[in-house]
Amino acid sequence: MLRVAVPNKGSLSEAATSILSEAGYRQRRTTKDLSLTDPDNGVEFYYLRPRDIAVYVGEGTLDVGISGRDLVLDSHADADTILELGFGGSTFRFAGRPGVAQSVKDLQGKRIATSFAGILGDHLAENGVEASVIKLDGAVESAVQLGVADVIADVVETGTTLRQAGLEVFGDVILKSEAVLIRRHGVEQPAGLEQLVRRLEGVLVARNYVMMDYDIRAEAVEAANAVAPGLESPTVSPLHREGWVAVRVMVLRADAQRIMDQLWEVGARAILTTDIHACRI
Ligand SMILES: Nc1ncnc2c1ncn2[C@@H]1O[C@H](COP(=O)(O)OP(=O)(O)OP(=O)(O)O)[C@@H](O)[C@H]1O
Ligand SMILES: O=P(O)(O)OC[C@H]1O[C@H](OP(=O)(O)OP(=O)(O)O)[C@H](O)[C@@H]1O
Ligand SMILES: [Mg+2]
């Protein structure tokens, strides 16, 4: 059986369970369950902290897992990203009281609080900066006010927590993160992984794309294809009405309205978009 690690708590937990359910896998009913077997799909799920998932997968104890890119890099786990999952997006950034520093270069000799000592240490070393790293478990934003650190390096999503603590980001984004599916580096592909990846890719496509149908005069099809070329090639079918065809094409959900406008401009009519429920590309 394929052994899959799933975040049990925190920001990634709910979205990880939803994407697996959408991909047709059984998921645990209560948050107290530590593991769950899905015999029909040949998969065992283990519910663990996402920081620990990087370690289990890196050690080869579990075949694959869902974690955050930042957590994987922070733990220096021997794991590769197989698939970016499109949720749990965040940035990892420096922040401090207004004016305290402009960039990482200003941090020589400073005290920096963080829960990501691995990423911070790597970043300081890359920039040739020596600073003292104060390792905290959470609520890092309070470290400045409470006087244990001069600045912090922390996960920033909306920036609300920073603002509440009277802090501002400074310097470049250290890392952009999102939830990722990981497996141990350099081992043979475990049985069942290909199916899991294909199913998850199917969910991502169904989430990110819509199906667009329209009617157009045959001579305008090329112009319409230039606007919406589809993933491979649009399906063009004859219509009963002479000189007209029906076209079916997948487009990015985020671009759908703009593409409908442009298709209309080149002569498309009866333009419809529909959700894709599930797919294999
Ligand atoms: N707003 C957010 N806050 C924290 N982590 C976030 C946020 N958005 C996305 N993430 C990502 O979630 C992962 C952290 O998950 P984890 O469960 O360890 O912490 P958490 O969500 O802060 O949970 P906890 O409540 O235990 O602090 C990281 O990959 C991080 O980048
Ligand atoms: O930019 P924002 O949208 O405010 O989100 C970022 C904050 O959310 C997380 O904290 P969490 O609530 O997980 O608490 P923690 O610091 O104790 O982990 C993270 O550590 C930041 O503090
Ligand atoms: Mg947290």
Automatic annotation (TrEMBL):
Limits of the ATP phosphoribosyltransferase catalytic domain: 49-202
Description of how activity is regulated: Feedback inhibited by histidine.
Classification via SUPFAM superfamilies: GlnB-like, Periplasmic binding protein-like II
Reaction catalyzed: 1-(5-phospho-beta-D-ribosyl)-ATP + diphosphate = 5-phospho-alpha-D-ribose 1-diphosphate + ATP
Main location: cytoplasm
The keyword Transmembrane helix is assigned to this record: no
Name listed for the protein in its UniProt record: ATP phosphoribosyltransferase
Residues in Histidine biosynthesis HisG C-terminal domain copies: 206-277
Localization of this protein: Cytoplasm
Pathway as given in its UniProt record: Amino-acid biosynthesis; L-histidine biosynthesis; L-histidine from 5-phospho-alpha-D-ribose 1-diphosphate: step 1/9
Gene Ontology molecular function: glycosyltransferase activity
Cofactor(s), by name: Mg(2+)
E.C. numbers: 2.4.2.17
Classification via InterPro entries: ATP-PRT_HisG_long, ATP_PRibTrfase_cat, ATP_PRibTrfase_CS, ATP_PRibTrfase_HisG, HisG_C, N-reg_PII-like_a/b, N-reg_PII/ATP_PRibTrfase_C
Assigned keywords, A-Z: Amino-acid biosynthesis, ATP-binding, Cytoplasm, Glycosyltransferase, Histidine biosynthesis, Magnesium, Metal-binding, Nucleotide-binding, Transferase
Top-level taxon of origin: Bacteria
Family, as annotated: Belongs to the ATP phosphoribosyltransferase family. Long subfamily.
